[in-house]
Write the structure tokens for this entry.
Amino acid sequence: MLAAASRQGLNLTSQIRRSARSAYGLQPLSGILKFSSTRAKAKAISHSGCNMASSHIVEDKPDTFADVKQNSAIAAANSNAASHKRVNAWQQPGPAAFDFRSDVMTTPTASMLDAITNTTLLDDVFLEDPTTNELESYVASLAGHEAGLLVMSGTMGNQVALRSHLVQPPHSVLCDIRGHIHNYEAGGVSCLSSAMLISVTPSNGHHLTLEDVQKHCIISDDVHACPTRVISLENTLDGMVMPLSEIRRISQFARSHGIRLHLDGARIWEAVAADAGSLPDFTREFDSVSMCFSKGLGAPIGSIIVGSKPFIAHARRIRKMLGGGTRQAGVISAAARVAVDENFGHGPNGEGGKLRASHARARNVAALWTAKGGKLANPTETNMVWLDLANEGCSADEFAELASTEGLKARGGRLVVHYQITEEAVERLGRVMDAVLQRKTRHGQNGA
């Protein structure tokens, strides 16, 4: 009986494994289950006591969670442009070399891989990993703060920091209406911190001013009000630098009213590379700062929060609550440290880094466009070039399609010239610009 039961159990286990593989598109059951993608919605396993249903054939549906910032037409164009998709990304230039969509497309380098293979493999939750501890300490010191905390993403960095500041509702967070915490973090401030967001449009079209903040900040004991407890600024934002002078004015106002100041500094490295101030110049005005390793710096993953020791100790608890505690974090921290040293530089002013060269290339791209007769939607202050496509009668979809014919990836008029963009990519982009402007001429939209 035991042998028979054992065989029956093995047969059931084997059947479950085959069905599970099929359900996830790994190895379809011959002639029984076929799914159109690895994210099939079909569930091949159903349980009724110990019995196993033979199969359930469910038509797969398209993924409804596609990034709304990249619609289907742009996605299709970029897919057509991906002629280099089989390139080993560790060999530079990798797939980011012709990708203008974002600096998140930067890929890790061979030196990062080498650091990963030689890193420590101890536990960060237990505070035992020396590579992670050293990274946190080094970047905090570089930014003029006492302590740092490794997190998995810029979103996690912002949300952990804001949740650590916000103790008890009712409370509100004031931010730029264009900012990431308002637009691109899935409503995290409202969900995780029970806070109201006050999103403010900068009156100068460039950056928030003290006058913008004073006009919208809620400082009131009225029971009807939701008092502002945190002002969250972003620098850089849309590739533009918020001036130090304005940050200091807002900082002085915030401190005079007991309001905490947070910086979404995912791209603060770019402000330093633009020679607008040193890293500590920008960051020490804030109670907390989130900085990203995986955008312009090119690490595969990771961000960091810096602040005071008591703040970071509390933030570590919030990180754990949100599932951000990492065990062998050295594989993340090692690559992040290389990204900081090689691409930002070795000091608070970004000495010896690669970002300044990408800014120069961005200025060349902007000059190329304007020399051909195009207009810019925003000034080129760091590594982003904003083409005014609307003025040329060209949609984002059409631009992405034109770019794809040159083997480039784009997402409309925002071009991010990260440090892995090559000169060949810029030459191809010039031909795309010509096509945009010639298209306008053919359609009779100029000279009127």
